[in-house]
Amino acid sequence: MIDLVVNILLYVASVFMLIGAIGMLRFPDFYTRVHAANLVTVGGVCFFLLTLAAYSFWTVYTIKIIVIVIFTFMTSPLISHALANTAYELNVRPKGLVKNEMKKSIKKVMVEEHDI
Question: Which of 19, 32, 61, 113 has its CA 20 to 30 A from that of 38?
C-alpha cells in the first residue's frame, strides 16, 4: 500500500516538474517564467518531499520532511512575489503590456492632436 502511495506521489511530482520546466522554456517574459519556477518549487519539490515522507512512514525523518514542506510551501510564493516586485520596480515590463501601453499612448496622442 505504501509503495502505491509513493509511486503516485512520485508521478505527480514528476508531472509538476515537467510542466514547470516546459513553462520555463516556452513562456515569453520574466513574470510568467517566475510563475513556472514557482510551480516547480511548490508542486514538484513539495510532492517529492512528501514522497520521501511517505516512504519513511512515521519516523523522525518524516516529521523533519513535513516541516521542510511547510516551510517551502509558505516561503516559495513570497520569494516569487519579491522577485516579480523587484523586476517591476526596475521597469521590466511584461511582453504583452508593452504593446498595450504603446497602443494607449498612440490613441492618447491621436485624441489630443486630432480630436478623434
Answer: 61
